[in-house]
């Protein structure tokens, strides 16, 4: 086009852009490619050819990005950059709230791209005109904001439900979907992260759609920020520092009528006991929410690093307790109010640290350490080795014991050898015999590079002894077992003590009794020793396989993670040895839980049994084909359970089983397809729909080259399902799974339609 025409079109387009509603009009005209009032100007100004409508524009993300770059550039007609941002930025934020479903995705993409470009090119203006208005509802109720409550009565709404929900959804679109981890965006998000965490904790207690977006925002920040910054933020969320402003103490969250939440002015509680109860309940809920959040950060090692930091805080608490031998300052007549407040603050911090460590040990301790270096860093200094409370063994001892059964490299033992002096001193001087024995076993295992593991060293007690009087399930203490061993060694005709490779029947009976010990560490140790007997195919243990199965199944229901994971490992090992006898029992309990148990307990037990079944499937390999139908039938029934967590777990197991079976699925693929399609379209829970789509992803990956052959009859239905999910699903993770499945399907079909051409040499003998 001539230069004068380009200048005229650009002038008209910029003039329309600065009018009220001009941004939306220009974006709509350019993206839709229509012949309307502004579509022709947009096409000429931006040199875009008219598309095939909204559907074509939705697929052309490059066009959306180009429009975002145009909007981020200040036109020449504007008097100043500040004036342009003041007029355009509110309209850009309005693009995030487009209700038209056909155009919402394109407009949101344009808005997110424009915001990120502005934040990158003009950070101060972008923060003032974009990020601050975006986060205004959360900052209004933040602890860092001075609230002016004049004229507001108790119970007055400070942030309405619609405004709060829209703010959280906009943050999800800009931060998580935009996925730009610049310092400006991370810093602006950190300023309201405490309020988001309070909202997440509140949504976790109630039925609210805000739980999932708040969790994704928190996890995104913890993943994208630097490790030290993430750890500092976690300390702030836990209440150990004031780095992260939380919800204002005069604000309170209430359940909204539309499934969201509202922020109101807190009502004054006259009853001191009730106020104290609510404060303690809120702190407990915050700690539980933080532990659940950390359970999603274990693979990255963030949970382990934070656990180590909490252990160091606990060590500091032990040192302060030893230093503070003086009486309570509150009881001193000369103690000032300032000293009293400082003392109470220290005591509150200590209680918080203890509560946090206890919750982490209960929630994520079994799998918190993903790196052997973290185990080495978890050891305390030698002066505070014995400062831990009685009844709690040091964490590095338990962590080392948990990691030793795994496949460790020689370099890993080099790291663990730094713990040997501490473990030796612990085994000699710690007040609890059980911890002494555990430390001694771990020390020997490290020194022998795992040749003598803690599971085998613990059986050095003498044979032929019975449990003491009282509870028949109570196992004798380690000190009692050592005393009996010494007495037998002093008797002239006593037989030699059994070696670790083959315990006597009396020793096996002692292990079975220890599997019911009230103390979780002793019970878990006994279960792991029983599992090691099954691994070595001990004849006495295999002869009592039914008894062992009963012991393992009963311990699966235990609430301690170390106990039930040890039981799961034992059942998996036993089932891989005798699948014909064990699998029917497991499948029966998975489909029909024990009568008389609560629904929550039964659901948790069934999910644990599902993990057992999947471990058995991996161990059987190709031999799992003969157990294909009962396994798939059990998971299909679990996918229709009223408990959403069990439905998601069953679908996850079903997907992994289908991936393992591959072309051996056969005609049962019809049932799997029907089930997955119905759940992905109709299930009310996002995590269940997400698991259903993930089944399709795993199925396509497992079949690989044989997709078109095995799924010939259902391929079209699966394709339609994935397209429907990609277009209509609101959950971002489910849409991502659908896109991954479409990519797998596209690659498989392309390999069939366009096989790679290879050059072959053929020698033909002519007659």
UniProtKB/TrEMBL annotation:
Give the protein name, as stated in the record. TNG6 protein
Q: Which GO terms describe its biological process?
A: protein secretion
Q: Which family does it belong to?
A: Belongs to the Tango6 family.
Q: According to the UniProt entry, where is the signal peptide? A: none
Domain 4Fe-4S ferredoxin-type: from-to ranges: 55-84
Region (Disordered) spans which residues?
Answer: 456-504
Return the Basic and acidic residues bias intervals.
Answer: 480-490
Q: Which PANTHER family has this protein been placed in?
A: TRANSPORT AND GOLGI ORGANIZATION PROTEIN 6 FAMILY MEMBER, TRANSPORT AND GOLGI ORGANIZATION PROTEIN 6 HOMOLOG
């Amino acid at each position: 086009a001539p230069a004068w025409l380009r200048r005229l079109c650009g002038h008209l387009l910029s003039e329309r852009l600065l009018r009220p509603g001009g941004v939306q009009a220009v974006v709509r005209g350019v993206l839709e490619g229509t012949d309307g009032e502004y579509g022709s100007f947009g096409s000429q100004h931006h040199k875009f050819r008219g598309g095939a409508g909204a559907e074509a524009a939705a697929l052309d993300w490059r066009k959306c990005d180009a429009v975002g770059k145009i909007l981020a550039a200040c036109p020449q007609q504007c008097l100043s950059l500040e004036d342009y941002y003041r007029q355009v930025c509110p309209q850009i934020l309005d693009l995030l709230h487009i209700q038209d479903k056909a155009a919402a995705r394109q407009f949101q993409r344009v808005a997110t791209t424009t915001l990120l470009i502005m934040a990158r090119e003009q950070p101060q203006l972008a923060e003032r005109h974009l990020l601050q208005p975006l986060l205004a509802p959360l900052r209004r109720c933040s602890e860092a904001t001075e609230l002016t409550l004049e004229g507001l009565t108790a119970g007055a709404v400070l942030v309405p439900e619609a405004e709060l929900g829209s703010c959280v959804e906009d943050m999800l679109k800009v931060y998580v979907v935009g996925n730009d981890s610049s310092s400006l965006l991370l810093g602006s998000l950190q300023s309201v992260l405490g309020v988001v965490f309070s909202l997440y904790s509140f949504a976790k207690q109630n039925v609210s759609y805000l739980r999932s977006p708040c969790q994704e925002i928190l996890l995104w920040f913890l993943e994208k920020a630097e490790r030290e910054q993430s750890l500092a933020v976690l300390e702030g969320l836990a209440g150990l520092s004031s780095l992260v402003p939380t919800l204002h103490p005069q604000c309170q969250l209430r359940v909204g009528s539309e499934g969201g939440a509202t922020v109101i002015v807190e009502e004054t509680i006259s009853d001191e006991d009730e106020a104290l109860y609510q404060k303690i309940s809120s702190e407990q809920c915050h700690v539980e929410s933080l532990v659940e959040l950390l359970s999603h950060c274990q693979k990255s090692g963030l949970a382990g690093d934070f656990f180590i930091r909490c252990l160091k805080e606990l060590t500091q608490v032990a040192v302060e307790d030893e230093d503070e031998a003086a009486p309570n300052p509150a009881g001193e007549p000369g103690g000032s109010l300032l000293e009293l407040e400082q003392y109470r603050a220290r005591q509150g911090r200590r209680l918080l640290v203890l509560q946090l460590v206890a919750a982490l040990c209960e929630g994520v301790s079994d799998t918190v350490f993903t790196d052997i270096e973290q185990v080495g860093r978890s050891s305390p200094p030698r002066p505070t080795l014995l400062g831990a409370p009685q009844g709690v063994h040091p964490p590095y001892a338990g962590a080392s014991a948990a990691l030793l059964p795994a496949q460790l490299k020689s370099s890993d033992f080099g790291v663990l050898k730094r713990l040997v002096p501490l473990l030796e001193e612990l085994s000699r001087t710690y007040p609890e015999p059980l911890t002494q024995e555990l430390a001694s076993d771990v020390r020997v295992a490290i020194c022998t590079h795992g040749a003598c593991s803690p599971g085998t060293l613990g059986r050095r007690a003498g044979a032929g002894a019975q449990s003491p009087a009282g509870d028949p399930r109570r196992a004798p203490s380690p000190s009692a077992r050592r005393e009996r061993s010494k007495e037998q060694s002093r008797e002239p005709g006593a037989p030699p003590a059994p070696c670790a490779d083959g315990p006597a029947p009396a020793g096996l009976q002692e292990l079975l009794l220890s599997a019911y010990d009230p103390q979780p560490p002793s019970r878990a140790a006994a279960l792991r020793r029983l599992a090691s007997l099954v691994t070595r195919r001990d004849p006495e243990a295999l002869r009592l396989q039914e008894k062992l199965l009963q012991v393992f199944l009963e311990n699966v229901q235990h609430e301690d993670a170390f106990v039930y994971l040890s039981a799961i490992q034992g059942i998996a090992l036993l089932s891989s040895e005798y699948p014909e006898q064990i699998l029917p029992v497991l499948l029966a309990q998975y489909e029909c839980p024990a009568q008389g148990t609560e629904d929550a307990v039964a659901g948790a037990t069934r999910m644990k049994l599902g993990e057992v079944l999947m471990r058995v499937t991996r161990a059987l390999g190709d031999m799992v084909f003969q157990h294909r139908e009962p396994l798939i039938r059990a998971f299909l029934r679990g996918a229709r359970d009223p408990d959403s967590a069990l439905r998601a777990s069953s679908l996850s197991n079903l997907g992994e089983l289908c991936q393992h079976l591959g072309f051996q699925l056969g005609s049962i693929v019809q049932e799997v397809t029907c089930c997955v399609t119905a759940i992905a379209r109709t299930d009310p829970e996002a995590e269940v729909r997400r698991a259903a789509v993930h089944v399709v992803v795993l199925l396509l990956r497992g079949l690989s080259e044989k997709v078109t052959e095995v799924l010939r009859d259902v391929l079209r239905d699966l394709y339609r399902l994935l397209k429907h999910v990609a277009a209509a699903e609101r959950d971002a993770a489910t849409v991502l799974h659908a896109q991954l499945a479409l990519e797998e399907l596209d690659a498989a079909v392309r390999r069939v339609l366009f096989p790679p051409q290879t050059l072959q040499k053929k020698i033909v003998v002519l007659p």
